Give the backbone structure.
Amino acid sequence: MDNNNYYNILLSVPTEGVYTYCYQGLIEIGQRVVVPFGKRTLTGIVIEKTTSQDFECKEILMVYDEKPLFSYTYINFLKQISSYYACPLGLVLHGLISEKLLNTELFETEDIPPCNQVNITLTENQKEIVESINIEKYSCHLIKGITGSGKTEIYQEVAKKVMAKGKQVLYIVPEISLTPQLIKRMGQRLGITPSVFHYKLTDKARKKNFIDFATGKSQFMLGARSALFIPAKNIGLIIVDEEHESSYKQDESPAYNLRDMAVLYGNLLNIPVILGSATPSIESLYNASINKYILHQLNDRPNSATLPEINIIDIKQHELIGSLIAEPIYNELCSVVKNDQQAILLLNRLGYATYLYCQQCGQVATCLNCSVGLITSKSKQKTFCRYCDTEYHKLTCSACGSSLFKEYGAGTEKVEEFLENMFPNKVIRIDTQSTSSFKTLDKNLKKFENKEANILIGTQIIAKGLHFPNVTFVGVLGIDNIIALPDFRAMEKVYQLLVQVAGRAGREHLSGKVFIQTSNPETFIFEMINNPDLEFYNWEIKRRKVTAYPPFTKLARLIFSYINQEECYLVAKIVYNNLKNICSSNVKIYSIKDAFLSKLQNKYRYEILIKSTSNSELNKTLIYAQQTFNKHKKGAMRLKIDKDPYFMM
Ligand code: ADP
Ligand code: ZN
Ligand code: ZN
């Protein structure tokens, strides 16, 4: 007589991840257990009770908690992610909660201290929006409000209502905007210290905050995207700020979009979800237009600061000061410095020189591991690849063997150097190179906030959700390279970037000016950016419809990568041929092509694009692609399935 009970256990491993184990006692669904797995012991989640197996099952070594940490809804959420992204369940869990976090023991944590509460009075418009959000059930609200219009105050007000009912609130922001200033501001409005969650926390702090939110001790979590997957005890509201943000799309499997997952989870939990942005994504605006989301608009700033006008500067018509900056922008910088105001300059290129040419034959110096050109950094005194970080100390031309190179192009570092000469000690640079850690980023931001510098030069990261109250001028030095990208979202991205960065100017009592320098002033997008209404959206959505791109079709990319180019192509070809044979008429398989980076970190990359109007047909295709790949793959060959891709490159 078999006294055992049998359970299916989900493990945080990059495979299917569900295995059957036996146990003498009873365990509830959602409880954590410790099981033997090969030579290791791992923590897993009980996801199903099952019947006696005809093969020998290993025994569960230990049951972790007294009560389930994971709810039925949470487990269902994982299953839905798995099926939507055609990603095995184990790999889903592995991508969302590491084994290290999953095995966190529930220890007694310190109390969460209160904060001095500072209240404000909402405007009529804000109040109306707060009141229209029913906190008792699911609905998804899209708040489209110009930068500084008071969206954050709305989120906080709804959060307070939900917390007053004893429920928890999850507030998600892009990693970069999770600054101490924001944490402090939240605390002051809510009257309690928020828990925080992001990947730069120490292991200990991450575990503590995980426990606090999972056990319900913490009522308010301010986190980066990974916070969505903490199994909160009693969550009543999810807020996703800057919902259009590209960093919400996960690069590795499961390649989920945080915003979409927040909406799915809210729906499963039957709780409200709030998405906010000054420049909502085309998808979300479309969802609002078909009444999936409820759209709210805030078109004014409460402190009556006005939105700045955006001026386009044709660089063919003006002198380029230092061969970098169009004269009108340079003049504005002079006056900003003279009047001790502040300016932001956006340049979407890292480093000092952005190209190196061989002086003998003109060949561009490229990385040996990646199909991209090398760039230089003067401060770090190196020539390097921005994709794999390989440094090149002795450069020789791959075509002629010469070691003489000439530098071209200007990155943020070069502009910084030039400005530093013109305006000594008035310049700060922020980009991914200058801010390898949160600490230095914070230090630089504080410096700028404390007006220790007048000019901030940086890449896209300075346009994202940061609050600079004293900025009166914004200059955009390089946007043409993004406009030219072969990506159906290029226009959307440029529009969002320009409107976002422009929104950094004139946020408070001082009014702002925005200048964009370009060699293509007639580009259509520039006509759109001074219209605060939905004109850009209407134009773009028509274009998407005509060209059959999202949200009118679904896309997926299959990216094959392997160290051996021929073998990689061969397997991609097999998968391609198989898909061609089986796919139904509403699934379109595009021919194999080199991925945008045809070589990356020493691996060759091929891509197959798939389009379909049917989600289920698309998923069938993806699962079939994965199976075919698994059958034919060689060695460490990889297939990445990127559904709803955000970057087409
Ligand atoms: P957003 O999130 O839309 O960028 P915020 O909520 O950060 O806007 O508001 C911008 C600024 O205006 C903040 O300093 C905020 O405190 C202030 N503010 C917002 N709403 C009000 C209000 N009703 N009364 C006074 N100040 C407000
Ligand atoms: Zn490289
Ligand atoms: Zn050469």
Observations:
- The chain has four domains: 5-102, 124-301, 305-352+410-542, 554-643.
